[in-house]
Design goal:
The protein is an alpha/beta fold and 374 residues long. The protein has helices at residues 25-39, 79-94, 110-115, 136-152, 161-170, 212-223, 239-250, 263-272, 287-294, 305-311, 323-334, 337-354, 357-373; strands spanning 9-14, 42-48, 66-69, 98-102, 120-123, 155-158, 176-177, 199-203, 227-231, 254-258, 275-278, 299-302, 317-319. The protein contains 13 helices and 13 strands.
């Protein structure tokens, strides 16, 4: 391997649904990171799944990024493991200088990459084995994958300092702190049919640990006074999707938009909401929260160490996951325009100072290059 700074460097990114994809946090990060690395002279390959990529208005894929698709088993319990295995096998054959691996479930395949001389940087994500959506077997799989990651990864990336503290205690591994970034949108008109500052917004995948059930219980209390806009779905159908549908059909003040792939629409929704509710409880730095901050969204958040770390003590209104408390927190903030303006100013400045994509991508590039040179 040539360590000359002028030589082409290569990186494979494993563990996402592909490029460009609009599914979740990893995919959001890759949409910014892959072109950034290409600008810095890297040959970038992003592994994905069949049907995992999609076009979106306002986003133009970078033609310098190579998107490779491998096969796997498309089920809730096996998809991450199976696609991780096939992408690792393909990456072994192509031998990039370094691999960026997303999610500890792919820790099982790190020995394969190491055997081929491919150093790895692993974003450990959140504490998957504590998520309510997984059964006992799946939780065990994630926990064992974390143990494998702790043993075999060359470098670990924590998207929150609290996650780093957890890994130091539980797995005796340290790493680097690299959060997610947010795009600062241009000031534009609110989404069609919506009045700026006059609606409450939630953007989340429909899983229990995102406080979806408790928020849905609070919706009738909020919708008595304010419009509620729900963005998200489970991805697999089920109880939460049905509840969102019923809430929207039964109350003219409630809108369910499902999963929104259009980045411009999402940014506009955050930019013009009166209050954004953020109920994520298990992960570290959540991409949706960072993006909401960059848009200046006044936020009511579930009270967790992660949300307090990202928003800061002065940047959000924190509530316990109880329907009445959520409703009271949201309604009181909607009725306090001065406090909403103060929170918007705090989070906008904080997003620019600590959570810009340029800072995030530069940190990833520095760590990938460091590990490549070891």
């Amino acid at each position: 391997m040539n360590d000359s700074s002028s030589s082409r460097r290569s990186v494979a990114i494993l563990g996402t649904r592909g490029y460009p994809s609009f599914y979740g946090g990893f995919e959001t990060a890759v949409r910014s990171l892959a072109p950034y690395l290409a600008d810095k002279g890297w040959d970038v390959t992003v592994y994905g799944r069949p049907g995992g990529t999609a076009a979106s208005s306002g986003f133009v894929p970078d033609s310098r990024v190579t998107a490779r698709t491998t096969r796997g088993v498309e089920t809730k319990s096996l998809s991450t493991l199976s696609y991780g295995a096939t992408s690792a096998l393909d990456s072994m054959r192509r031998r990039p200088d370094v691999a960026l691996v997303m999610n500890v479930a792919n820790g099982y395949w790190l020995p394969l990459l190491k055997a081929r001389g491919i150093p790895t940087v692993v974003n450990v994500d959140g504490i998957e084995w504590e998520r309510e959506k997984w059964g006992r077997l799946a939780k065990a799989v994630f926990r064992t994958g974390a143990l494998a990651t702790a043993k075999w990864a060359d470098s670990l990336v924590f998207d929150a300092r609290a996650i780093g503290d957890y890994w130091a205690k539980e797995f005796q591994r340290t790493g680097v702190f690299i959060p997610y970034g947010g795009d600062v949108p241009k000031v534009g008109a609110p989404p069609e049919g919506m009045e700026s500052g006059a609606y409450v917004l939630i953007v989340a995948r429909f899983v229990p640990e995102n406080t979806i059930g408790e928020f849905f219980d609070s919706v009738p209390l909020i919708a008595q006074r304010h419009r509620v806009v729900i963005v998200g779905s489970s991805g697999y159908g089920g109880e939460f999707d049905q509840r969102a549908k019923s809430l929207a059909e039964g109350n003219a003040n409630v809108t369910w938009m499902g999963h929104v792939r259009d980045d411009d629409l999402l940014l506009s929704l955050w930019q013009h909401c009166g209050v954004y509710f953020h109920g994520h409880s298990v992960g570290g730095t959540n991409p949706a929260l960072v993006q909401a901050m960059a848009c200046g969204a006044p936020t009511v958040a579930r009270d967790t160490v992660f949300n307090r770390e990202v928003l800061s003590e002065q940047g959000g209104k924190f509530v316990l996951p109880r329907p009445q408390e959520i409703a009271d927190g949201v309604n009181s903030l909607m009725n306090d325009p001065e406090e909403r303006a103060r929170l918007a100013a705090v989070v906008t400045a904080r997003a620019a100072d600590y959570y810009s994509w340029n800072l995030v991508c530069a940190a990833y590039e520095a760590e990938l290059d460091r590990v490549r040179r070891k």
